[in-house]
Each structure stands twice: as structure tokens, then as C-alpha cells.
Design goal:
By secondary structure, the chain is mainly α. The protein is built from 18 helices and six strands. The chain has a two-stranded antiparallel ribbon. A two-stranded antiparallel ribbon has the order 2-3.
Length: 467
């Protein structure tokens, strides 16, 4: 009986204490640093920062090495230069891409009909993140991607064909243009400083969406040479009609230049200075045409000149990348110069060689001015930017685009489509050719039952648009 009494008293005390504690901690079990809801403004900033990393970080360096603008000389970058591309190497990048795509889906849904500007921006950003993912891996999750919160049915998202993904990318951009064309009064909340790219200027987003439509049409040059060229030119005409007149409308990754907000090339070189150097072939190309951009692209080497590391070498006394490698340098995502080179290529493929030559010449002059801060020397313009319908060639267009888009991921896509410039594989390469894709990520092979079986390990296998 005594034990029963003691137990009853103890139970009563515990109940009283529990009730008191519940009142004391009520509301504090939810961390203010882990909010369960978000806003369009917060999501837009998060997605844009991720997109900056995807286009100007690891895969920009990867593209520069695959196309021999740069040489990998130490640690994992020597491995990449030697074509050691393993299934576990890019799990983090894959996850980051799909985190951004998922956030885009959330923003699209959350913005809805009441905030078409935010929805339009989200669709442009989703198109960009989906595109770089499929351009690297080929067939990837799309229609079922980023839906895990909806239940187990989406825990193993299917891999969609790249052909269908490209159709969806174009649909996203078309829908974005409809949203972005609406009146400001149609929005409950307007984007502003949370939009790190354009500060809410939707006219710039309209230009960007049209140039992106042209870019992704142009990727289909092997699949549909005439049709893709015609559609690309139509999209560029729309960009011009929307106000694209020069680099002032460029879509850039912007960096404040302090703390964790540093330009990606600068931040990389500060911490891993000898991992990547200028490549000898690229330096030789610019020297051969007396290109005024070379001293802006490359830093002085150990001897005070400008040099590049030879293919297959790990020499680190050569030049570092200097171009757009300051703490606050913007990195191009979608640019006027790229648009003019797309116009030149597409016009050339439709046999409008006069338009091709004019666009080619303008692209070169505009980029030299942008990169150096001065007009190109007259002798350089005469030699490199005075093409006519009788002299313009696809090789000239793609070679100068390769030079102008230094440090940008798009050079890898261009090289795979055209094989211009002609490049020889690294003699130390682990495969007998320059890789044309990444292998299926390890985590997808292990944990996604919908992943390709067997997983794709052949890094020489072209993606769909490269076949």
C-alpha cells in the first residue's frame, strides 16, 4: 500500500511537471533558423545563388579543361584532365542541381497566378538548371524529379529522354515569356533586390529567355540543322525586339566580392592556386592571331610572360586565369556576345551568309571592347572581324566563339556539337578520346531503382543531341 501511495504521488508530480514544462517551452521547439515556410523572394535568391555555382563553378572549370582552354595540373584537377571521371565524383553537384530544380518547382507553385513575374523567373531558372544537368548526363529525371514530398511514388524518379527534356525546356521558356509579359499590376508582390541578377527588371528576363530559346535550339544542330537554325534566329529576333542591343542587357552571375560572396574563379584560385593553369594550345591560338584579350585572360607566369601548360603536362609555372577572376567580377550566364555568335552560326546554316558575317564581326568587336575596355585595334578588326558573305566559314565562327566564351560552360557544348576547334586527346588520358558526358552518378545507381540498368559508364558515349 505504501509503495502504491508513493507511486501515485510520483505520477502526480510528473504530470504537474510535464504540464509546467509544456507551458515553459511552448513554441520554442521550432527553430527560427529552420523555417517551415518560405517566400518567393527568399526562394529566388537561393535558386540564383545555386545557379551561379552551377554555371561558373566546378563545371565551368570542367568545360575549360575538356576544351583545352585550361590545364588541370594538381590533385583532382589533374585526374579530370586525365579523363578520370568516376561515378562518385559529382554526387554533390547532381544533388545541388536537383535541389535548385526542386526549389524552382516550389517557387512556380507558390507564385501561381497571383505572381506571374516570380513564376516566369522561376521557369527561366528551372530551364537553365535542367539544361546543364541533361547536357552533362544525357537522360535524367525530369517529370518526376523534385516530387519526393508528395510520397513514395516519387522516391525513385524516372529518367526522361533528353529529347523530351529539351521539349520541356522550350515549353518552360515559352510559358515564362507569357508570365513576364503581363502587366506589373497583375502581381501581388514584385521581385526586387532579391533578384540578384536583374533586381526585378522583367524586360531583361524577357531578353534572357529568348536568347536561351536560341541557345537550346542551336544545341540541336546535329539533329535538325535547318529547323533548329530557323527557330534560333526567330528567338533572337524576339530578343532584339525586346531591347537587346548590347552587353548592358547581359544575364550575369553577380558577386559582391566579400565573405562567401566571391567570384567562383577567384575563390578557387585563392585556395587552390596551382590546380588549374592556362593551356598551351589556347595561349598559342590567341598569340597566333595577335588577340588583344590575351593579357586580360592570362596572368603573368613565373618568368613574367604569358604561357600555358602543355597537353598532358602538370607544369605549374605557367599563367593563371586572370579574366573575370577578381573578387567581384561578374560571370556571364547568357550574353549579347553569345547571342551574336548563335546568330552567326544559325544564319550560316540557313545560308544567309551576309547575316552570318555581320553577326560574327559584331560579336568579336563587342567582346574585345567588353574584355579589354577598348575597341579592337584596326589591324585586328581587318584580320579577324571583317568577314563577308564570301569569306565567312563555320570554323571561323566557332573558333572565335570559343575564344570569346572563355571560362563559360557553353564552350563544351559547342565543341561536342561541331568538333571545332580540332583538339587532340590528352596522351595521358584514361580513355581514347575527349569525354563527351559524365557517368551515371553513384547515388542514383545505388538508391534510385529507376536509374539506367546497367548504369552509363562510357564517358565517350554522346548525349542525344551530340549523336
Amino acid at each position: 500500500m505504501k509503495k502504491i501511495l508513493h507511486a501515485g504521488i510520483l505520477t502526480t508530480l510528473l504530470l504537474i511537471f510535464s504540464a509546467s514544462c509544456s507551458k515553459f517551452v511552448d513554441g520554442y521547439e521550432v527553430s527560427p533558423n529552420s523555417p517551415e515556410t518560405t517566400t518567393p523572394a527568399l526562394l529566388t535568391t537561393v535558386i540564383e545563388v545555386a545557379t551561379f555555382s552551377h554555371y561558373s563553378g566546378q563545371f565551368a572549370r570542367f568545360a575549360a579543361m575538356m576544351t583545352q582552354q585550361c590545364a588541370g595540373t594538381q590533385a583532382q584537377y589533374e585526374d579530370i584532365a586525365n579523363y578520370s571521371l568516376l561515378e562518385g565524383d559529382n554526387n554533390n553537384e547532381w544533388n545541388s542541381h536537383y535541389s535548385a530544380i526542386t526549389d524552382c518547382n516550389i517557387l512556380i507553385e507558390q507564385a501561381g497566378d497571383l505572381n506571374p513575374y516570380y513564376r516566369g523567373i522561376a521557369k527561366v531558372l528551372k530551364a537553365m538548371n535542367l539544361a546543364i544537368t541533361t547536357d552533362l548526363w544525357g537522360d535524367v529525371p525530369n517529370t518526376e524529379a523534385g516530387k519526393g514530398l508528395q510520397g513514395e511514388a516519387f522516391y525513385n524518379p524516372a529518367f526522361d529522354s533528353q529529347e523530351s527534356i529539351y521539349q520541356d525546356i522550350q515549353n518552360l521558356l515559352s510559358e515564362a515569356l507569357v508570365d513576364l509579359a503581363k502587366d506589373a499590376d497583375a502581381n501581388t508582390v514584385l521581385p526586387g533586390l532579391d533578384d540578384l541578377i536583374f533586381n526585378g527588371d522583367v524586360s531583361r528576363w524577357i531578353i534572357t529567355a529568348n536568347v536561351l530559346k536560341a541557345r537550346y535550339e542551336n544545341h540541336l544542330s546535329k539533329r535538325d540543322p535547318d529547323g533548329s537554325a530557323t527557330r534560333a534566329l526567330s528567338a533572337l529576333d524576339a530578343a532584339k525586339a525586346a531591347g537587346m542591343t548590347g552587353p548592358e542587357t547581359d544575364c550575369n552571375a553577380n558577386f559582391p566580392g566579400d565573405g562567401n560572396s566571391l567570384n567562383q574563379w577567384y575563390a578557387f584560385q585563392v585556395t587552390r592556386g596551382d590546380y588549374i593553369k592556362m593551356a598551351e594550345g589556347f595561349v598559342n591560338l590567341l598569340n597566333s592571331i595577335n588577340d588583344p584579350r590575351l593579357p586580360f585572360y592570362a596572368a603573368p607566369d613565373a618568368a613574367g610572360g604569358i604561357s600555358g601548360t602543355p597537353l598532358g603536362s602538370i607544369t605549374t609555372t605557367t599563367s593563371d586565369v586572370a579574366y573575370l577572376a577578381n573578387p567581384d567580377s561578374p560571370s556571364p550566364l547568357v550574353s549579347y556576345v553569345e547571342a551574336k555568335f548563335i546568330e552567326a552560326e544559325a544564319a550560316f546554316r540557313t545560308n544567309d551568309k551576309a547575316r552570318a558575317a555581320a553577326a560574327h564581326n559584331e560579336a568579336i568587336k563587342a567582346h574585345v571592347r567588353q574584355a579589354t575596355g577598348a575597341d579592337a585595334p584596326p589591324a585586328y578588326i581587318t584580320a579577324q572581324a571583317s568577314e563577308t558573305d564570301a569569306t565567312i566559314t563555320l570554323e571561323k565562327i566557332m573558333t572565335h566563339k570559343y575564344v570569346a566564351l572563355f571560362t563559360q560552360f557553353e564552350v563544351y557544348n559547342d565543341w561536342r556539337r561541331t568538333n571545332i576547334p580540332a583538339l587532340s586527346p590528352n596522351p595521358n588520358g584514361l580513355v581514347a578520346g575527349i569525354p563527351r558526358r559524365l557517368p551515371t552518378p553513384q547515388n542514383e545507381r545505388l538508391y534510385n531503382t529507376s536509374a539506367p540498368t546497367p548504369p552509363i559508364s562510357d564517358i565517350l558515349k554522346p548525349v542525344w543531341w551530340d549523336e
